[in-house]
Amino acid sequence: xxxxxxxxxxxxxxxxxxxxxxxxxxxxxxLVVVAPIGLTAYVIWTVIGWVDGWVLTFVPSGYHPxxxxxxxxxxxDPGEQIHINLRGAGVVIFLIFTVVVGWIAKGLVxxxxxxxxxxxxxxxxxxxxxxxxxxxxxxxxxxxxxxSFDKACLIEYPxxxxxxxxxxxxxxxxEVARRTPEDEKYLSVFVPTTPNPTSGFLLFFPESDVILxxxxxxxxxxxxxxxxxxxxxxxxxxxxxxxxxxxxxx
Length: 250
Fold this sequence. Notes:
By secondary structure, the chain is α+β, with helices and mostly antiparallel strands. The protein has a domain at about 150-225. The chain has eight helices and five strands, in the order H-H-H-H-H-H-E-E-H-E-E-E-H. It has helices at about 5-10, 20-55, 65-75, 90-105, 110-120, 125-140, 175-180, 215-225; strands at about 150-155, 165-170, 185-190, 200-205, 210. Helix 2 (about 20-55) packs across helix 4. The termini are far apart.
């Protein structure tokens, strides 16, 4: 005789995952490992190829890597010559050229040549604007003693009640500081876009409207690039990242 309470006293055993479930789990695990490595290698490979294509256009064809290799091997006949895409040759040439130019620019002759060239550029209307803008950006970004973003912050943008992550660059200066109300200090805040943080908006906020964050600028940048998926403290996103305690010798 069947027991009517058999289903309650003996619940059905859960089904064991099949082969497809194991393969799916293994695929997702491998994708988490392979995707960052593959994307990083792809970006580096693409950037190197772009630099090679740009630099090698200024190098005479007789001095390209494949031409030098054919000349070294003695292949003078076009039919027997080999063609090699030596990735990274343009990057090496660019690095050597940049180091040589920097070394010359530090000397008296180099500074005189640069001063003469800049005076010539200042007399050219369109070129002057482009050169001065690019030079100012390069000096700000690559200067070893230059300033960078100080803190990450929260600001209400584009309207009240909506918050966005920004980066405090400096206090408002010059005409901007003179034209803004004098009863409060204003901050220059760069508000990046997602997922490309190199573009964004420069906004000037009263200091009282800016909420400084405990997270570092690098962690805030990761949060912006990942569209909110990567938080500084993955265990508890509501808390700042835990401080690392330095190892003490035993």
